[in-house]
Amino acid sequence: MLVQEVVASYGGRVRFASENFGASPLAEHFGVTRYPAVFVDDVLVARPRDFGFFAEGEKSGRYTPWRNAESQAKFKKDLARMIDLVLAGGKEMLRTERAEAPGADGAPDRLPAFESDDLSGGRISAADLRGRPVVVEFWATWCPPCRSTLAWLGELKKRRGDRLDVVALAVESPEAEARKFASASSPGIRWAIADAQTARAFGDVAAVPTLFLFDAEGRSAGTFYGAPPDLHERIEKALAALDAR
After folding, report:
1. CA distance 196 to 65
2. Residue 206: what are its φ and ψ, rounded to 5°?
3. Where residue 137 sits, what CATH number does that domain have?
4. Over the stretch 146-197, which tens digit does the pLDDT of each residue have?
5. 226 with 24: CB under 8 angstroms?
């Protein structure tokens, strides 16, 4: 991890800490509901948008395209400068520079009106997903946490059957690899490739896995970022709450 590489270069003068969303007071304070976000002490120095959004490609973010070595080098250089500033007693200067005013990331409050070609040859549309809760999972073939989440979602779909729809939308993934993964995974999941328009319809997607849960009437019932240890439990609780309505 690039942040850890930078921290390690300070020979113990700087400590690295990782927090899951939903368990981060700093993320809550700043209204950050996506990831990654980077803090130096209590100063937000890099927001999710700095690393780019799938629907906006290379046009958005200080460090896009994120997979580019030059962008990663720029991030490491900037982070080191910010740490140096704090170590030198310039935290307030950094705070002013980074404009710490809280800001929100816009997950949709209703199931967006999207359409995508199903990898099995059919068509997925929001209109067809009404009448039962639906999970929409954004994932990528290069994302290890996505695989475990999708395996669990396959089991969840198997248990709930017609009482739940699960849609898996791949981003930044070669179609051949996505098809290979889908063919070896749960047949109950609806698999598709998400284009920029679809990602944008969901408020854009900064990272994967990102999971959206909607109720039977298409209203948002929760948005879940990453793969924290309690992810499955939180989704099960959210679904139980929908069952109780």
Report:
1. 15
2. -85, -30
3. 3.40.30.10
4. 999 999 999 999 999 999 999 999 988 899 999 999 999 988 999 999 887 7
5. no
Residue-level length of the chain: 245
Is residue 17 exposed (0-12), middle (13-18) or buried (19+ Cβ within 10 Å)? Answer: exposed
Of 18, 4, 198, nearest in space to 111 by CA: 198
**Rounded distance between C-alpha atoms, residue 82 and residue 75, angstroms:** 11
- 194 vs 34, 103, 217, CA distance in Å? 18, 26, 23
Of 107, 127, 106, whose CA–CA distance to 115 is shortest? 127
Q: 7: which 2 tokens?
A: 């921290």
108 inside domain: no
Helices (H), the chain: 2-8, 25-30, 69-87, 91-98, 144-160, 175-183, 196-201, 231-243
How far, in Å, CA of 27 to CA of 34, rounded?
9
42 or 206, which is more confident: 42
Phi/psi for 190 (5° steps) reads -90, 120
Long-range CB pairs of 218-221, under 8 A, 24+ apart, other chains included: 218/110, 218/111, 218/126, 218/129, 218/130, 219/109, 219/110, 219/111, 220/107, 220/108, 220/109, 220/110, 220/111, 221/133
| pLDDT at position 149 | 93
Cα 129 versus chain centre, distance: 22
**Domain range enclosing 55:** 2-98
* Residue at 104 is within a domain: no
